[in-house]
Design brief:
658 residues, alpha/beta, five-stranded mixed sheet, two-stranded antiparallel ribbon, 9 strands, globular, TTF-type domain-containing protein, protein dimerization activity, DUF4371, HATC_C_dom
Length: 658
C-alpha cells in the first residue's frame, strides 16, 4: 500500500453521499442469521396519563394489564380492585346447547363473589385477580379462558366437582389463581409493599404528616362546600394574597401552634400536601365518596335519568345527569350525580356519555324506568332522539317531557290566541331589543333611570334604604324560560319612564331611518307500563293485595293525613306495611320514579355559574364535576370525616403513609 504523497492529502476527507454512514458497520458473522424483529404479543399503550376513574369495566372490552404503561400498572390495578369484580345483574341471553337453551346464572356470583366477573358484550365470565396478576397466556389451550377470551360453556358449570369455575380455583394452594388472589390482597395492604420496607418513619414524622394533611383536607372541604376558588393569581411567598387555599391553611395554623409548626414553609419540600395536584386529589376523593353514597342509596331500586345541557363560562357544552329514585325508607330523591363535557349534542353522543357514567358505577340501563328531558328535538325525537335510543335498550324507560316546560309553552301558545296579549308581546320584544341592543343605549337607559330616581327621592315619592332603588335593565322573554315573560313585563313597568325617554331620543336622533321608524312604532303600543317488573304470578297476587290494601291502609290512623303518594310510600316503609303489601309498595315506587320536571338540572346549571366564573373559566372538566357534586350534594359531603378522607387518600397512591 503506497504512502500518501503529502501530509495535506493524508488528512483530506473523501466526499461521501448523505446515504453513507461515516462509521463502519459492526463486524458480523455471515454464517449467523440476523434475527427478525418480532411483534410484541402484548402491544403497550403509549405512555400517557391514564384516567383511572374512567377505566373500562366490561372485562370483555378492557385492554390487558400488560398493555398499560409499566409505571402506572399498580395504580390501575388498585383502581380495579377498589371497584371490585364487575357483576351486573341483567336479563342474561340464552345460548343454544343441543336441544337445550342455557344462560348465565346470577347465583354463580354468590358462589364466587370475590373474583367472578361477567361481560355483557361477550356473554362470558372472567377472573379479576388473574386478569390483574396472572401470567401472560402461554398459547396452551385454555390458558387465556378467564383473562382474554372468557369462559361461556354454561353446560359444564353444573357438573359438580368437574365445574370449570371450581377447577379454575384449583385444589393446590399454589395454583395460579390462588397466587393471583394473594397478590390481589397484598397490593392494597400498604404494610406489605416492598417499597414500604424502606420507609422507616418515626412516630413524630407520621403524626406531622397526618396533621398537615388534615389541614389541607379541612381547607379543601370548606372551599368546595362554599363553591369558592382554590388557587390565587400569585401564590409566591412574597405575595399579599396567595389564594384561598393557602390563606385558609395559614388561618387554620394560627389557631394551633402544632399545625403552624408543620404546614407550608415548615413542612418538608416533598410532603407539603398543598400542591394543586394534591388539592385536586383530595377533592376527587370527596366527590367519589359522594357518588358512592348516592349509588348506595339507590341500591337495587329502579331509577330515572333527568338530563339537560347548557354552556359554561368557557363556552363548553356541559351535560348534567340527575338520578331520581325512591330510597329504602320510601323517600323520593333527586340527586345530582355528574356533569360531563360533550363535544356535540347529538343523541348518539349524549347516550354514549350517559352510558359511560352509569356503567362506571354499576347502574344498569335495564333498571331505568323514566327519562326526563326538555322538548329539544335531539331529546324527544321519536326515531333518533335520545329518548328513542334508550327505549330500544329498555322499553320501560318512559320519556316525560318536562311538565314545567310544557306548561310554559302551553301558556305562551294560549296567550297568543288572545289578540291584545298577542299584540302586546309582539311589541314588547322589539322595544327591549331597540333599547338595550347596544352598550351606548343601555348606558343612556341607566343614566336616565338614575336621574329619575334622584328626582323621586328628592320629592319623597319613593323610600330609601339598603337594597332599594338599585340600577337594573330590561329583560328579554323566552318561550322556554320559566317566568321570563313576567320578569320582562316587570322590568319594563319598573323602567317605563326611562325606556320612553330613550325611545323618544332614538326616534329623533337614530342612526338611520329603520332605527328611527322602529323606535317610533314601539313608542306608540307598549298494567301497560311495567310488565317486566312483575311476573304473571305477581300480577295475580297484586290484585288480591290491592283489595286488602283498600280495606286496611286508608282506614289506618297513621295514614289519615297523608295527601301525596310520596307521603304514602314513606308511611308504608316506616309502619312496616311495605313488607305486607310488597307488590303495592313496588308499584308505588315505580310510579314515583317517573320524572316531573327538569328543575334539578336547572339548579345544577345555576350552581355551575357560581362555581365556574369568568375568573375560573379554565377549570378542567373533572375538577369542575368534582366541585359541583360536592357543592350541590353538600348534605352528603358533610358526613365524611377527615379520617375517612385521609384513609382513602393513602390508599389511592403511594404517598408517605401514616
Amino acid at each position: 500500500m503506497g504512502k500518501p504523497k503529502t501530509i495535506d492529502a493524508f488528512f483530506k476527507k473523501k466526499d461521501v453521499s448523505h446515504s453513507e454512514v461515516n462509521t463502519p458497520p459492526p463486524a458480523t458473522n455471515i454464517d449467523t442469521p440476523i434475527p427478525e424483529e418480532r411483534p410484541s404479543k402484548c402491544p403497550r399503550i403509549q405512555p400517557k396519563e391514564i384516567d383511572t376513574t374512567s377505566l373500562e369495566r366490561d372485562p370483555g372490552l378492557r385492554p390487558q394489564i400488560c398493555e398499560f404503561p409499566i409505571n402506572q400498572q399498580d395504580e390501575i390495578r388498585r383502581a380495579y380492585i377498589k371497584a371490585g369484580p364487575y357483576q351486573p345483574v341483567l336479563d342474561y341471553p340464552f345460548k343454544e346447547s343441543g336441544n337445550q337453551r342455557r344462560r348465565f346464572n346470577v347465583l354463580w356470583f354468590d358462589a364466587h363473589k370475590n373474583w367472578l366477573e361477567y361481560s355483557p358484550s361477550k356473554d362470558a365470565v372472567y377472573c379479576l385477580p388473574c386478569y390483574l396478576f396472572g401470567k401472560k397466556p402461554t398459547g396452551r389451550p385454555g390458558s387465556d379462558a378467564f383473562t382474554v377470551k372468557g369462559f361461556d360453556n354454561w353446560k359444564k358449570v353444573n357438573d359438580g366437582m368437574n365445574c370449570p369455575l371450581v377447577g379454575h380455583v384449583g385444589k393446590d394452594p399454589n395454583s395460579p389463581h390462588k397466587i393471583a388472589v394473594k397478590c390481589y390482597e397484598d397490593l392494597m395492604k400498604h404494610s406489605r409493599h416492598v417499597d414500604k420496607l424502606f420507609e422507616k418513619q418515626s412516630l413524630k414524622e407520621i403524626q406531622d404528616n397526618r396533621l398537615r394533611l388534615k389541614a389541607s383536607i379541612d381547607s379543601v372541604q370548606y372551599l368546595a362546600l362554599q363553591g369558592c376558588a382554590f388557587r390565587g393569581h400569585d401564590e409566591s411567598l412574597d405575595s399579599m394574597n396567595r389564594g384561598n387555599f393557602v390563606e385558609l391553611v395559614k388561618l387554620v395554623s394560627t389557631y394551633d401552634h402544632r399545625v403552624a409548626s408543620v404546614v407550608l414553609e415548615n413542612a418538608p419540600r416533598n410532603a407539603k400536601y398543598t400542591s394543586p395536584t394534591i388539592q385536586k386529589e383530595i377533592l376527587h376523593i370527596i366527590a367519589s365518596k359522594v357518588r358512592d353514597a348516592i349509588r348506595e342509596e339507590i341500591g337495587d331500586a329502579k331509577f330515572c335519568i333527568i338530563i339537560d345541557e347548557a354552556r359554561d363560562e368557557s363556552k363548553k357544552e356541559q351535560m348534567a345527569i340527575i338520578l331520581r329514585f325512591v330510597d329504602k325508607d320510601g323517600f323520593l330523591k333527586e340527586r345530582f350525580f355528574h356533569i360531563v363535557h360533550v363535544r356535540d349534542t347529538t343523541a348518539l353522543t349524549l347516550k354514549k356519555e350517559i352510558c359511560a357514567v352509569l356503567s362506571r358505577y354499576n347502574l344498569h340501563i335495564e333498571n331505568i324506568r323514566g327519562q326526563g328531558y326538555d322538548g329539544a328535538s335531539n331529546m324527544r325525537g321519536e326515531w333518533n332522539g335520545l329518548q328513542a335510543l334508550f327505549l330500544k335498550d329498555c322499553p320501560y324507560a318512559y320519556y316525560v317531557h318536562c311538565l314545567a316546560h310544557r306548561l310554559q309553552l302551553a301558556l305562551v301558545s294560549a296567550s297568543r290566541e288572545v289578540e291584545p296579549v298577542h299584540q302586546f308581546f309582539n311589541h314588547l320584544t322589539p322595544i327591549i331589543n331597540i333599547v338595550v341592543g347596544s352598550s351606548k343605549r343601555n348606558d343612556e337607559l341607566q343614566a336616565t333611570q338614575a336621574e329619575q330616581i334622584e328626582n323621586m327621592i328628592a320629592s319623597n315619592e319613593i323610600e330609601t334604604g339598603r337594597g332599594l332603588n338599585q340600577s337594573c335593565t330590561l329583560q328579554r322573554a323566552g318561550d322556554t324560560r320559566w317566568g321570563s315573560h313576567f320578569q320582562s313585563i316587570s322590568s319594563l313597568i319598573k323602567m317605563f319612564d326611562a325606556t320612553c325617554s330613550v325611545l323618544y331620543t332614538i326616534s329623533k336622533e337614530g342612526a338611520n331611518y329603520q332605527q328611527r321608524g322602529d323606535a317610533e312604532g314601539a313608542y306608540k303600543l307598549v298494567e301497560k307500563f311495567y310488565p317486566q317488573d312483575f311476573t304473571e304470578q305477581e300480577k295475580t297476587l297484586l290484585r288480591f293485595q290491592l283489595q286488602h290494601y283498600e280495606l286496611d291502609v286508608p282506614k289506618h290512623p297513621d295514614f289519615q293525613n297523608m295527601d301525596t303518594i310520596s307521603e304514602l310510600c314513606r308511611g308504608l316503609a316506616s309502619s312496616g306495611k311495605s313488607k305486607i303489601y310488597h307488590l303495592v309498595d313496588r308499584l308505588i315506587r315505580l310510579v314515583l320514579t317517573l320524572p316531573v320536571s327538569t328543575a334539578t338540572t336547572e339548579r345544577a346549571f345555576s350552581a355551575m355559574k357560581h362555581v365556574k366564573t369568568r375568573l375560573r373559566n379554565r377549570m378542567e372538566d373533572e375538577f369542575l364535576a368534582d366541585n359541583l357534586v360536592v357543592y350541590i350534594e353538600k348534605e352528603i359531603a358533610k358526613n365524611f370525616t377527615v379520617e375517612m378522607i385521609m384513609d382513602e387518600f393513602y390508599s389511592m397512591k403511594d404517598h408517605r403513609r401514616a
